[in-house]
């Protein structure tokens, strides 16, 4: 059945009239995603690629009650309010593409989503794709193919590189999720691993981590404690990064001995995860595991 997005996904785009919002709405429609409405305050009555625009999420959902997912491409200072608005309207999956969201805003809407029983992907993420069914976000759809491997990643570009290699090997993906590279994100590795555990289409999982934070170490602990039943292949980006230097992502910094690649590789290896030393190795390891 795949996870998070599928043939039943019905999308609202918040920030649809912006340059990026309009561009990715067109790409999602071309992919086959059902985008029903968009929201930009003050732009009600317009349409983007045939998608009607409303002033508020409440108005959009009233006109299209089947909406169950929102993609947020609102400028960072206003993204927090946009997410809260989507959650108040009862939307159960909110994919926050916006980067540079203030950390306190992210903490607030992630906590609020949990109270309401909704899921947040992001912020600062490329989105979610179930190949052949739906994509919500900015991932290039043509590199994905429906298959057996679930991918969960903190890195945007590496996601595409590894997913493409998995496609070339003929394995394909069940669902691919970019959880975002910020220090505070909605769904984390453990959340997604649990979803993949229950997904019958997913036979193996790829975990793409990077330096900074302890999400990978926590995932390793979860894999051991729950005796995770599916093979996991991991790659950790940023192995050559110098300590105390930020490396692009807000979450990618090694500090006080925490978040360094060696500790992540050690924890994952000890948990029985197959850790690749290069992105190219990931697909090769999967082929061996899924023979």
TrEMBL record:
One of its GO terms (molecular function) is nucleotide binding. This is Succinate--CoA ligase [ADP-forming] subunit alpha. PROSITE patterns: SUCCINYL_COA_LIG_1, SUCCINYL_COA_LIG_2. Pfam families: CoA_binding, Ligase_CoA. Its EC number is 6.2.1.5. GO terms for cellular component: succinate-CoA ligase complex (ADP-forming). Residues 4-101 form the CoA-binding domain. One of its GO terms (biological process) is tricarboxylic acid cycle. It comes from the Archaea.
